From TrEMBL:
Protein's recorded name: Heat shock protein 15
Pfam families, per database record: S4 (PF01479)
UniProt keyword terms in alphabetical order: DNA-binding, RNA-binding, Stress response
Biased composition range(s): Basic and acidic residues: 71-98, 115-128
Location of region: Disordered: 71-128
Family, per entry: Belongs to the HSP15 family.
Organism the protein comes from: Litchfieldella qijiaojingensis
């Protein structure tokens, strides 16, 4: 295989569930190819660096192999290699999110009728 479209490669590497989602991300400017915005039909080359958003994280990967067929996850991981900086950044951000979520405490239960009335009274006072 000599050339593969960017949207097909992202789909085959399992960064996106469908090619339509990959196309939407590329057209929206979310995916960068070698540090620049790319078009959906961009031909992917070995050694290229691609930045791909995945939920809260941004993956920066180097293309190792080309494929236009979607296969299992272990085979898809062989298509790219994540950069060490990207991996460290993702782990650091995940730890930061975990600590932020620990600081937030859920109320033990829903407010009862009396507490709801107090909350509504406080909210009405804030409007004045």
């Amino acid at each position: 295989m000599e050339t593969v479209r960017l949207d097909k490669w992202l789909w085959a590497a399992r960064f996106f569930k469908t090619r339509a989602l990959a196309k939407k991300a590329i057209d929206g400017g979310k995916v960068q190819y070698n540090g620049a915005k790319a078009k959906t039909s961009k031909a992917v080359e070995r050694g290229a660096r691609i930045k791909v958003p995945q939920g809260w994280d941004v993956w920066e990967v180097e293309v190792v192999a080309l494929s236009d067929q979607r296969r299992g996850a272990p085979e898809a991981r062989e298509l790219y290699r994540e950069t060490p900086e990207s991996q460290a950044r993702r782990e650091r951000e995940a730890e930061r999110r975990r600590l932020a979520n620990q600081a937030f405490q859920q109320p033990p239960r829903r407010p009862d009728k009396k507490q709801r009335r107090e909350l509504q009274r406080i909210q009405r006072q804030g409007e004045d």
